[in-house]
Give the backbone structure.
Amino acid sequence: MTKKKQQIWDGNVRDAALTILLAVDKQQAYSNLLLNQTIKKYKLEANDRGLLTELTYGTLQHKYTLDYYLEPFIRGKMDLWVKWLLRLSLYQIEYLDRVPDHAAVNEAVEIAKRRGHKGIASLVNGILRSILRQGVRSTEEISDPVKRLAIETSHPDWLVERLIDSYGMESTTKMLHENNVAPIASVRVNTTKATVQEVLQMLEQEGVQAEQSKVMPECLHLISGQAARTKAFKEGFLTIQDESSMMPANVLNPQPGWRVLDMCAAPGGKTTHMAEKMKNEGSILATDLHPHKLDLIDENSARLGLGIIQTAPVDGRKAAHLLQQESFDAVLVDAPCSGFGVMRRKPDIKYTKREEDLSNLHDIQLELLNNAVKVLKKGGRLVYSTCTVNKEENEETVKAFLTSHPEMEPADLENLPKELLERSQHGMLQVFPQDFGSDGFFVAAFRKKTE
Ligand SMILES: C[S@@+](CC[C@H](N)C(=O)[O-])C[C@H]1O[C@@H](n2cnc3c(N)ncnc32)[C@H](O)[C@@H]1O
């Protein structure tokens, strides 16, 4: 790419990042979906894709910290887009070594001129140059340690307090810092089609460097390159999935020939994993509340060559009325949740979830589990999982569930590596983002008593 073209694209990337940030704020749009759409629409090349992702996630991830830095330099009201432009520019100045400060300021001024007028450009220029001269204030000025941690890591106060109550200051501090670090990209090998070594070789031939995880044997960590663009992906040799999300299928441990229900299945990451574990023998009914999401499961199973998955739109809270009683050997409830374990991937969660939403989620999770029990055969295995680190949705949902279901008992978490089993207690396992660099995730296993 010529130097001139690079410069033109640089401008577009920052502008595109600003458009995404504004849509996330104003329309509560999902940052990850908008990023993917923008990358497709502008047909961005690898460098620009990387920069756009970094600018969008980085600015969102550090929003409260950036606001704390900006506050002394802003007087009076300001349009929302100008505020986001300042955050975006200050993010580059404070966190990105590869962007020279003057380039970040110049780009901001150009965008301000294009989107507004000369007056706004001069305001943006003035604020950013003052910050460059004076530097930003230290968070040491915040005397309350909870508030300081909230600002330093850019999380809402109520969430920081809640996590400290549950896990203590040390773990919470590690977790909140980890939430601002880019996740490890990982993929799951489709073991019905090839071995781990074969898929590693296929990827290498396509210029993607990867290595086998030391935790989950079917998991590869990507070192460089993009799995989604490879022939190996298109031909169904792998699925893009976080390593923690590979736990539920392993813990449920469905065997070839079983009849399995995946109650909250879309987009089918765990459904297809289970089908692979079952060597594509038996049957899986994959249901989800939202009918339009079922296509994603069908697409994924077709790509992976898995023929045992059937999809149906079912509200899990009514599953016991719609499906046959005691007809499944195993049920997976990968429940809707607050997503506090995946804030690295979806930083908007930090700012949009409200504390009052959490007990509602707990109630829905219980309803789903109540229905799962009814369709599960005696002696059958039930696994409950969430991608959150919120005790109310994890341990407390399990406790309430077991209290109201004497016919169920906690079951051993089988089929997991030693490092994970050592962390489990009473048939439950909470993984934190700082443990293995994978998502924060919770899994619990139960068995339906035979009498
Ligand atoms: C955590 S996601 C599932 C991810 C999926 N298991 C995977 O591995 O790809 C939770 C899913 O639950 C679905 N859902 C929400 N409420 C539901 C309900 N009442 N019944 C069934 N599915 C529900 C959502 O549409 C969402 O797709």
Summary: The chain has four domains: 3-137, 145-178, 186-240, 244-448. The radius of gyration is 24 Å.
